[in-house]
Task: inverse folding
């Protein structure tokens, strides 16, 4: 018996959807730009069965991949569960067999040794294949047309880490992918395996090194010379897992640490820098300036996730769970391990920010992300109240001038992660801002498409789904040249 | 009386007949047609005689509501589904336990 009634958070717009869907020739308000041919691929999670433990992390939700396929001005929608061994085992048992996030000690004994990954974080198109990514396991290959799950992928046996990041970076100048796995040799190991994979999918390079303490390594940034790897206050241990706790706890005494790893160097060449307690979960971009590395990201003051609670027993502090776009500068000529940090914008934002990916590793000007603007109207009598806790705007943040332009989704909407889609042969920032809005009044999801250079004008098209689509964590635009679309 | 509307009347085990919104509208339309009165007028959607008290007819939770004194305010459903409301009472910690990214 499936029963979500005891979960206070699984109600209204946020109730589980749990179905697979196809919508052909979706309803569109406005006009889909003719130059958009490809797919907006989203990956997120939904609970197939309720979690075994009330305090588990939402990162344990079963993966769900969905695409808005754009072709000649028509948009088709398709959504499918990512059918991992875990999903299949739960479905066969008709209940949740798996315990807390990245803690196999809390699983039902019947699933001991089974791949317990849920593929719910980031979609990736690379070397002509579509993958789902989850940082506790290998990528899963997905059929880009049917969205059916093919299975785990290890790059012809040459990718040897047991885990694969949710945020690899593709160097736009070479097409190479820089990727890594942490806890690479197994649970609670300090090992990081860093890879360079050619654009044809061939593993070109592997570098193995250890981090100072086992911590979340969720995202990185790259320059032409270096890989920037932040770690921060999330800690774990085998003892913690055996006590039945969720994988991560927050240790406020841990400094933020950043590894500057030469892309063609060895482990001995890595520089570690230390700074005040922060949480850099997602990054924007980085670049070389002489012997300095400039790194920008929406960085939290402290722990953003209450489901990874402080290890000292104190309460999670929501006032510190705010992200601001900051710049960190690492001077490789320095003799100490300090770095400088500047807050570039005073407005707190969603840390799910994006840039024009053609400018990764390069000097760039624009960052895009969602934020909540309480000065905008919100029609509670239609949408219900969330106490102002909505992201109703996408912003284009001009890092050169400090100015911001904004797109407002509507008075009953909240926006999920933004995606920037460049116009072919356009300059930086010339293209579209794309993302899914939750319409709490109409109980449906809407894919919005806005001209990135004219955000104040509103959307140019809005693709309407006649239902609530599963919430995404990350979405990516995939041009039709990148995958063998039918 | 409209025979189809009669068949749609729900009979519960208690023996009490409840009139559903659908079959009430069927009955009303049929009755109005017979008497040549616009149905909307009976439902209070027109107000050509402002101070005349007339029975208030409305629906709430799909149940018919009638106030024969004419003093009540008819229920009007909200314009939206208020999908966010079930989470309105949650503290920031409770909300973010499940939705770190809304």
Result:
């Amino acid at each position: 018996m499936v029963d979500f009634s005891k979960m206070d958070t699984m109600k209204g717009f946020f109730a589980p959807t749990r179905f697979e869907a196809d919508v052909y020739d979706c309803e569109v308000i406005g006009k889909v730009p003719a130059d958009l041919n490809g797919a907006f691929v989203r990956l997120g999670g939904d609970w197939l069965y309720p979690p075994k433990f009330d305090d588990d992390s939402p990162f344990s939700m079963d993966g769900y991949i969905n695409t808005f396929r754009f072709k000649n001005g028509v948009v088709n929608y398709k959504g499918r569960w990512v059918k991992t061994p875990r999903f299949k085992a739960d479905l066969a048992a008709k209940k949740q067999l798996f315990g807390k996030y990245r803690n196999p000690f809390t699983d039902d004994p019947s699933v001991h040794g089974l791949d317990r990954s849920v593929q719910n974080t980031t979609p990736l198109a690379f070397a002509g294949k579509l993958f789902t990514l989850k940082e506790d396991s290998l990528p899963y290959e997905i059929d880009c047309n049917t969205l059916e799950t093919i299975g785990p992928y290890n790059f012809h046996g040459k990718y040897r880490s047991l885990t694969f990041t949710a945020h690899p970076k593709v160097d736009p100048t070479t097409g190479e992918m820089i990727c890594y796995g942490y806890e690479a040799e197994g649970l609670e190991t300090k090992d990081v395996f860093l890879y360079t994979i050619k654009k044809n999918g061939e593993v070109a390079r592997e570098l193995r090194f250890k981090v100072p303490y086992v911590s979340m390594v969720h995202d990185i940034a790259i320059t032409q010379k270096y890989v920037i790897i932040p770690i921060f206050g999330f800690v774990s241990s085998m003892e913690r897992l055996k006590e039945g706790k969720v994988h991560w706890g927050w240790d406020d005494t841990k400094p933020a640490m950043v590894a500057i790893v030469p892309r063609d160097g060895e482990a001995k060449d890595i520089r570690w820098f230390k700074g005040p307690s922060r949480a850099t979960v997602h990054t924007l971009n980085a670049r070389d300036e002489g012997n300095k590395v400039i790194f920008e990201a929406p960085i939290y003051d402290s722990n953003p996730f209450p489901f990874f609670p402080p290890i000292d027993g104190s309460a999670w502090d929501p006032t510190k769970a705010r992200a601001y776009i900051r710049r960190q500068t690492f001077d490789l000529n320095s003799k100490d391990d300090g770095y400088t940090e500047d807050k570039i914008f005073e407005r707190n934002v969603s840390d799910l920010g994006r840039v024009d990916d053609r400018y990764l590793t390069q000097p760039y000007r624009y960052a895009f992300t969602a934020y909540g603007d309480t000065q905008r109207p919100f029609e509670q009598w239609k949408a219900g109240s969330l106490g102002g806790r909505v992201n109703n705007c996408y912003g284009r943040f001009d890092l050169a001038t400090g100015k911001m332009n904004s797109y407002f989704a509507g008075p009953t909407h909240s926006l999920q992660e933004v995606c920037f889609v460049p116009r072919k042969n356009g300059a930086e920032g010339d293209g579209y801002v794309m993302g899914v809005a939750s319409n709490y009044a109409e109980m449906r999801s809407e894919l919005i498409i806005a001209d990135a250079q004219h955000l104040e004008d509103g959307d140019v098209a809005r693709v309407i789904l006649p239902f609530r689509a599963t919430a995404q964590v990350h979405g990516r635009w995939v041009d039709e040249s990148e995958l063998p679309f039918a | 009386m409209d025979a189809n509307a009669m068949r749609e009347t729900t009979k519960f085990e208690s023996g009490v007949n409840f009139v559903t919104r659908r079959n009430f509208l069927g009955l009303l339309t049929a009755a109005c047609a017979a008497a040549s009165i616009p149905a909307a007028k009976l439902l209070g959607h027109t107000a050509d005689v402002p101070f005349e008290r007339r029975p208030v007819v409305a629906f709430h939770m799909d149940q018919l509501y009638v106030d024969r004194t004419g003093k009540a305010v008819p229920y009007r459903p909200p314009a939206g589904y208020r999908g966010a409301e079930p989470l309105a009472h949650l503290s920031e910690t409770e909300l973010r336990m499940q939705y770190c990214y809304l």
In short: Chain A has one domain: 12-479. The first helix of chain A runs from residue 85 to 93. The domain at 12-479 of chain A is CATH 2.130.10.10 (Methylamine Dehydrogenase; Chain H).
